[in-house]
Amino acid sequence: MSVELIKGSHFRNLAIARPPDTYARLTLLNSVGQEISRCKTSVRRGQPNPVYKETFIFQVALFQLSDVTLLTSIYNRRSMKRKEMVGWFALGQNSSGEEEQLHWQDMKESGGQQVCRWHVLLEA
Fold first, then answer.
1. Is residue 116, in this structure, part of any structural domain at all?
2. How many domains does the chain have?
3. What is the pLDDT of residues 27-44, one digit of tens each?
4. Residue 18's pLDDT band (boundaries 50, 70, 90)?
5. Eight-class DSSP state of 49
6. 22 C-beta neighbours (distance < 10 Å), count
7. How many CB atoms lie within 10 A of CB 13?
């Protein structure tokens, strides 16, 4: 399964007045919520509307697509080791909403074609 994270929009840094330094973590979970694999984007510094354009490959068999969840979390890196979650959404078995469930269903039925959608982050 190929996943491309294209961009974010209207990210705010609540602690200080400058735009946040953000990155995304993508985590693939099995049907009982255990981590199968994870990856993350590079940090986008000082961008309220960061463009990531990064693609990640997850090894998932077609018959497993109904049993996995892809969790996407956006983090603000505040200092060297400190981070705070900006928000998250999930696609797949435990989708975080109706739009996310529809996106996953469309992806499964797309025959290998890319299915691109915006998602609203849920608060951490």
1. no
2. 1
3. 999 999 999 999 999 999
4. confident
5. S
6. 23
7. 17
**Is residue 9 assigned to a domain?**
yes
**Which residues fall within 8 angstroms of residue 64, CB to CB, at 6 or more apart?**
none
Whichever domain contains 99, its CATH number is 2.60.40.150
Asked if the structure places residue 58 within a domain, the reply is yes
Full residue range of the structural domain in which residue 6 is found: 2-110
Report whether 74 contacts 68 (CB < 8 A).
Answer: no
Does 8 reside within a domain? yes
The pLDDT assigned to 37 comes to 97
pLDDT score for 62: 85
Q: Is 52 helix (H, G, I), strand (E, B) or coil?
A: strand
| Dihedral of alpha carbons 28, 102, 95, 30, sign | negative
Residue 22, pLDDT > 70, answer yes
Q: Which two tokens stand for residue 74?
A: 């956006």
CA distance 121 to 52: 16
CB 40 within 8 A of CB 52: no
